[in-house]
Design brief:
The structure holds three protein chains of three kinds. By secondary structure, chain B is mostly helical. Chain B has eleven helices and no strands. Chain B folds into two domains: 46 residues; 238 residues, MetI-like fold, CATH 1.10.3720.10. The longest helix of chain C has 37 residues. In chain C, helix 3 runs antiparallel to helix 4 and helix 3 crosses helix 6. Helices cover 74% and strands 0% of the residues of chain C. Classes of the chains: A alpha/beta, B mainly alpha, C mainly alpha. Chain B: Belongs to the binding-protein-dependent transport system permease family. CysTW subfamily.
């Protein structure tokens, strides 16, 4: 009779030992907390939202947790919508979002913070127009042509509009397969915002997060778009410049010249842009001017924000959020993200404005 | 029976054709199966190293780092899910086969279990999140929540496979036990369960394998952390699938090391299940009554 | 006769009551969980169903929004089942009755392993390996069978079509279906098999006469588990499919209907407000679909009585 019990318990015991055996020790690279508060800063910052920011956040976390070993920063890449929602309901201390809060959300945020909301740009990523066309390495495209290609009105590579942009190139007569994001994303929203403002009516889909045109090739995430563009022939798509790898990237017509995509060219567009009207002083929401005409400025960028409260009930939490945002928006922080995530650092003009806002975070 | 009227040559031909088809199906299935196994093993193996198993990702960017935190998380969350699912699932299967016979409740439950198999994994995650928010407030993240979400996915698999295995125990065995005056509960415990133990263990292993690779529900409720967390009831807990997904979807610059880690994590998941399978076979081999096969 | 009567009503004791109570309790726990999920889906979903078109991101009212998704879900799952059911029965039969024992054990083991591959990996495999390999066959299908609506083309340049998704799903559900069929086949009473063989039946006739009738219920159970997974699979579909939200029988073009689960994963990240409710409501629809499909399957199965050792 005892054997039955043994039968039932033996595997359970085996499994438990395995789990407990592992539990006995921590990871080799994690110091067991020795209690010696070195930086004075401690606690856990729970943040989440935009998955675009994830690799930048990893870089920031590394530096931040190294200087402040008593702190832990968690970032759930649940998406901008989820991040905003959970920040507004009080589930997160800080949200990362590819879009600034709309008016309705702003009202909720003021309730949640019982005061003003701090919204600062932290991550600017250039969006490249990537293509895979055997025999063609360099491609110039005007906004109107890009709009036509993604709208589906320009269907072959030797179309007159493309020829006009590239008088010297030999273009094949093959079909264009435009690749778009099949998931809802801030990248799509910023790309369609660019097309809507700059394509002179060639793009008719409006400014959207969900790709509006039925048809064409859809792919999930930046990596999906990149692999679809790589996998097909005569494909063209849009994706973060940092992930473009060895794919060709098109130079985009700005004013009268063509600008290649680069982090430097992308940072400049923020200086040329205007803040969104009617916002509190702590809310640096930016309306990116996609129709800039200055040479050397690249207008297709994704601007991602971090959203926090100006006042927190808890002194420690306020300190934590403040020093996190101070680091993230500092020159060092921006350089770290540029190196490890391929983002465009905030220009000094924008950086100063942001620093002044972050400085106002305090405990109530 | 029509077979008796079929000429012998035709029966032989049909038999040969069937053999070809059955073997063909097997060979056909092998292609994708080996292709996937090979992909995972060949891309994952280079990532494995002592550091990979003992380091977490805390303060690691670019090369280096490991999956220790995610490995701990996956083992804890899956173990918790198993502890929840197996008793409920197995008892339900016993109810269906031994006690439910002809009862309307049993018909309903059998049916609802089938429906439960169709719950998309992300919905299970959202459900667990909504449930835990009721008790712990907004923004709750804990490994145990992940275990509950996985249980929702796991229970139907346990019930379904255990039920099939229990049903296959010949009635003669039960009747023999009853005839000897053995009470029903002991008949179930001593005769029915041991007879079907091999199948039940396979079923449970399959159920664990089914959920151990789930990503979406764990991202919602267990979250993602790059530090080790042993506490199922507090704070975020990394798990291997979520780790792999996030390593693929935002790899940073350059993407190489991160993607290698993702394949390494996938290979480790495979190894865990392989180990589990071995243990399961051992258990069923040791404890099942001697069979003819 | 009296002996049989007695055996149907064994001695009842305290232990029996406890055991019966515990198992009934477990069954009721499942009812409660399911009720919980159903209530959650309904409460969260109904506002999404009632939302007016301009309140949700899709800009459509609920039915036209969810219609193509339902179509895509059923189409992808149907393709997966059509491929996986015969193959898994074949594989299981091969392992249980055709292959040499040692080989069979190893093969069964390898196939079980595949049940554990995370769906993300199936997705990566689908994009990186399978889709590329299928571009040429799709071109051939378009050229030679283009008169059928399924293969009307134009064939996708990347191979990321709903047929590819169906194949990936088939591979994903193959392990669990094979495992259950195999276990059930192995449990065929040896006496039945030997009786069939003794009567001069060929191996195939033995399978038909002794194995399949015995295993019918198990095969259906395996298929239902596979179908459930195929209907609800999220990440792999989201990664592989080039989805456009259309209704189309064309299996090989890059314009494909999306599936409910994949659509939730693709849209959920950036959703807020009533759009979230609409997505949860689409989850409710998937729940109902599973319900209906199961009712249909039950009706089919119940027409021929299940074999069960426990049935009197």
């Amino acid at each position: 009779m005892k054997t039955t019990k043994l039968r039932m318990t033996a595997p359970a015991v085996a499994a438990l030992t395995l789990v407990l055996g592992l539990s006995a020790c921590g990871a080799a690279n994690e110091d067991p907390s020795d209690g010696s508060a070195s930086g004075g800063l401690s606690g856990t910052l729970n943040a989440g939202g935009s998955s675009a920011q994830e690799s930048a956040v990893a870089a920031w976390k590394k530096a931040f947790q190294t200087t402040n070993p008593e702190t832990t920063v968690n970032y759930d890449p649940v998406g901008s919508g989820g991040g905003r929602e959970q920040f507004l309901s009080g589930g997160l201390d800080l949200a990362g979002s590819d879009a600034y809060l709309d008016d309705e959300e702003l009202a909720k945020a003021k309730d949640r913070c019982s005061g003003d909301v701090v919204e600062v740009p932290t991550y600017v990523s250039p969006i490249a127009v990537v293509f895979n066309l055997p025999g063609v390495d360099e491609l110039n495209l005007s906004p109107k042509t890009i709009g036509g290609i993604f709208q589906g009105t320009i269907t072959t590579w030797d179309d007159d509009a493309i020829k006009a942009d590239n008088p010297d190139a030999t273009l094949p007569s093959s079909k264009i397969t435009p690749v778009h994001r099949s998931d809802d994303s801030g990248t799509t929203k910023n790309f369609t915002d660019y097309l809507d403002q700059a394509s002179d009516g060639a793009w008719k889909g409006g400014v959207v997060e969900t790709w509006p045109i039925k048809g064409g090739e859809g792919a999930e995430g930046t990596s999906g778009v990149i692999s679809a563009v790589k996998g097909g022939k005569g494909t063209i798509g849009y994706a973060d410049e940092s992930q473009a790898g060895d794919l060709g990237t098109a130079a985009v017509k700005v004013g009268d010249s063509f600008t290649k995509v680069s982090p430097e060219a992308a940072s400049k567009v923020l200086d040329a842009s205007t803040p969104v009207a009617g916002r509190a002083a702590t809310d640096i929401a930016i309306e990116v001017d996609r129709k800039v005409t200055e040479a050397g400025v690249y207008p297709i960028v994704l601007v991602s924000y971090q959203i926090a409260c100006q006042t927190y009930d808890d002194q420690a939490k306020a300190e934590l959020v403040k020093s996190w945002l101070t680091y993230v928006t500092s020159t060092d922080g921006q350089a770290a993200a540029a190196k490890d995530a391929g983002s465009a650092p905030l220009s000094s003009a924008v950086g100063e404005k942001v620093a002044a806002v972050v400085e106002t975070i305090k405990a109530s | 029976m029509s077979i008796l009227h079929t000429p012998m040559w035709r029966r032989r031909a049909v038999d040969r054709l069937a053999t070809v088809l059955v073997t063909g199906a097997f060979v056909l299935a092998l292609f994708p199966l080996f292709s996937i196994l090979w992909t995972v093993v060949s891309k994952g193996a280079p990532a494995l190293s002592p550091e990979f198993f003992t380091y977490s990702m805390r303060n690691v960017v670019g090369e280096g780092g490991g999956i220790y935190h995610a490995l701990v998380g996956t083992l804890l969350v899956t173990a918790a899910a198993t502890v929840i699912s197996v008793p409920i699932g197995l008892l339900t299967a016993i109810f269906l086969v031994e006690y439910g016979e002809g009862r309307r409740l049993a018909r309903w439950i059998r049916f609802l279990v089938d429906v439960m198999t169709g719950i998309p994994s992300i919905v299970a995650g959202l459900f667990a999140y909504a449930l835990f928010v009721v008790f712990f407030g907004e923004g709750v993240r804990m490994g145990f929540g992940g275990a509950v979400a996985l249980s929702v996915l796991m229970i139907p698999v346990v019930v379904r496979s255990c039920e099939e295995m229990l049903k296959l125990v010949p009635n003669e065995l039960r009747e023999a036990a009853y005839a000897l005056g053995v009470p029903k509960w002991r008949t179930v415990l001593k005769v029915v369960l041991p007879t079907s133990i091999a199948g039940i263990v396979t079923g449970i292993t399959l159920a664990i394998a089914r959920v151990i690779g789930e990503t979406a529900p764990l991202l919602v409720i267990a979250g993602l952390s790059d530090s080790v967390n042993f506490d199922l009831f507090h704070d975020r807990m990394a798990t291997l699938p979520v780790f792999a997904y996030s390593a693929v979807s935002s790899p940073g610059v350059p993407p190489g090391p991160s993607i290698d880690r993702a394949w390494g994590a996938a290979l480790v998941l495979l190894l865990i299940v392989m180990l589990l399978n071995l243990v399961a076979r051992l258990v069923s081999h040791l404890f099942s009554p001697k069979s003819e096969r | 006769m009296t002996v049989v009567e007695v055996s149907r009503h064994p001695v009842r004791r305290l232990g029996d009551r406890v055991f019966a109570g515990a198992s009934t309790g477990a069954a009721i726990t499942i009812l409660a969980t399911l009720a919980g999920v159903a209530i959650f889906l309904t409460v969260e979903g109904v506002p999404g169903i009632l939302a007016s078109p301009d309140e949700v991101k899709s800009g459509e009212s609920f039915l036209p929004y969810v219609g193509p998704l339902v179509f895509g879900t059923l189409l992808a799952a149907a393709i997966a089942l059509v491929i996986a059911v015969p193959v898994s029965i074949g594989v299981a039969l091969f392992i249980s009755h055709y292959a040499p024992r040692r080989l069979a054990a190893v093969m069964g083991y390898l196939i079980d392993l595949l049940a554990a591959v995370p769906s993300v990996v199936y997705g990566l495999w689908g994009i990186g390996f399978l889709a590329g390999k299928l571009v040429a066959p799709y071109g051939w299908l378009e050229e030679h069978l283009g008169f059928l609506p399924f293969f009307a083309g134009p064939a996708s340049a990347t191979g990321r079509t709903i047929l590819t998704v169906g194949i990936v799903l088939a591979v994903m559900i193959l392990p669990i279906m094979t495992a259950i069929c195999r276990e059930v086949f192995l449990q065929t009473p040896r006496l039945h098999e030997e009786a069939a063989l003794a009567l001069g039946a060929t191996r195939w006739e033995m399978a038909r006469l002794a194995v399949f009738p015995h295993a019918r219920s198990g095969i259906i159970s395996g298929a239902m588990l596979g179908l459930g997974r195929a209907l609800g699979e999220t990440m792999a579909v989201a990664m592989v499919l080039s989805a456009s939200g259309v209704v189309s029988w064309n299996l090989i073009s890059s314009t494909n209907p999306s599936t409910i689960a994949a659509n939730i994963a693709l849209s959920f990240k950036e959703a807020s407000g009533l759009t979230v409710n609409a997505l949860v409501a689409s989850g409710l629809v998937l729940f109902v679909i599973t319900f209906v499909v199961n009712v249909a399957a039950r009706l089919v199965v119940d027409r021929r009585k299940d074999f069960s050792g426990a049935d009197a």
